[in-house]
Design goal:
The protein is an alpha/beta fold and about 220 residues long. Helices cover about 60% and strands about 20% of the residues. Among the domains are: about 30 residues, no CATH class; about 110 residues, 3-Layer(aba) Sandwich (Trna Endonuclease, Chain: A, domain 1). Strand 3, helix 5 and strand 4 form a beta-alpha-beta unit.
C-alpha cells in the first residue's frame, strides 16, 4: 500500500528515494509527515534533561566530597579530645596516687597532722563571717587553714588544682584575716596542679607554692 492508499511502482519508489537524497525540503517534509521531527524534538529534550541530571550529579558528588572532608576533620578533633581526656585521667590518677587520698578534706587532715607532729606548729581551720564582702564581693562565710608557729601565721590553701582565681581568693582572705585578727599572715598553697598563670601570679603576690605536678605533666 503506497501513498494515499495507492501502490507505488518501482520507478515511483526510486524517484521518491532520489528526491529524499537530493531534495532537502522534500526530505524534511517527509520527515514531518512521518513524525520524525517530533521524535527529534523529544530526543533533544531528553538530551537536555540528561545533561541537567549529570550536572546535578556532579554537584552532589562535590557536596559529598566536602561532607567527607568535614567528617574527617571531626574525627581528628574527636581523636584529639580523646587524647586530652586520657591525659586528664592519667593526671588525676597520678595525683591520687602521690597524695594517697581522693579528697581535699582528707589531704588537708593529713597535712595538719604532719605540721603539728613534725614541726610542732598549731594548725586549725579559721572561719569568719565576711560582712563587708572583702573576699567574694558580698557578705559570706569564709574559711581557710592556718598554721601558727613562733608567732608566725601562715594561711594555707589546700586544693587538688589551683588556677589564678584561687590565688586571688587566697590574697583577699589574707586581707580579711589581717583586718580581723590584726596580724598580717604569710600565704602558701599546697596543690596537685598549679596552672602556669596561677604560679606566675602567686610569685608576684609572694605566695609560696608546694606541688607535685605542673600542668601538662603526666604520669
Amino acid at each position: 500500500m503506497g501513498v494515499a492508499g495507492v501502490a507505488l511502482s518501482r520507478e515511483e519508489k526510486e524517484r521518491i528515494l532520489k528526491a529524499l537524497e537530493e531534495d532537502k525540503e522534500f526530505r524534511y517534509a517527509m520527515m514531518g509527515l512521518l513524525g520524525f521531527t517530533e521524535l527529534l524534538e523529544r530526543f533533544s529534550r531528553l538530551e537536555e534533561r540528561q545533561q541537567r541530571l549529570e550536572e546535578r550529579q556532579q554537584r552532589l558528588e562535590e557536596r559529598m566530597l566536602r561532607l567527607e572532608e568535614r567528617l574527617l576533620e571531626v574525627e581528628k578533633r574527636l581523636a584529639s579530645l580523646e587524647e586530652a581526656v586520657k591525659g586528664l585521667q592519667r593526671t588525676l590518677a597520678t595525683v591520687a596516687h602521690r597524695f594517697g587520698v581522693l579528697s581535699e578534706s582528707a589531704f588537708r587532715g593529713a597535712i595538719k597532722g604532719i605540721v603539728e607532729e613534725v614541726f610542732g606548729a598549731k594548725a586549725y581551720r579559721w572561719t569568719t563571717y565576711d560582712k563587708d564582702g572583702v573576699v567574694y564581693g558580698h557578705p559570706s562565710e569564709v574559711e581557710v587553714d592556718v598554721v601558727i608557729r613562733d608567732g608566725k601565721h601562715v594561711l594555707v590553701e589546700v586544693k587538688s588544682r589551683v588556677d589564678a582565681g584561687d590565688v586571688i581568693e587566697l590574697a583577699r582572705i589574707a586581707k580579711l584575716y589581717e583586718k580581723t585578727e590584726g596580724i598580717k599572715p604569710e600565704l602558701a598553697i599546697v596543690a596537685g596542679f598549679v596552672s602556669p598563670k596561677a604560679r606566675k601570679l602567686a610569685e608576684k603576690l609572694g605566695i609560696k607554692i608546694y606541688t607535685y605536678l605542673e600542668d601538662g605533666q603526666t604520669v
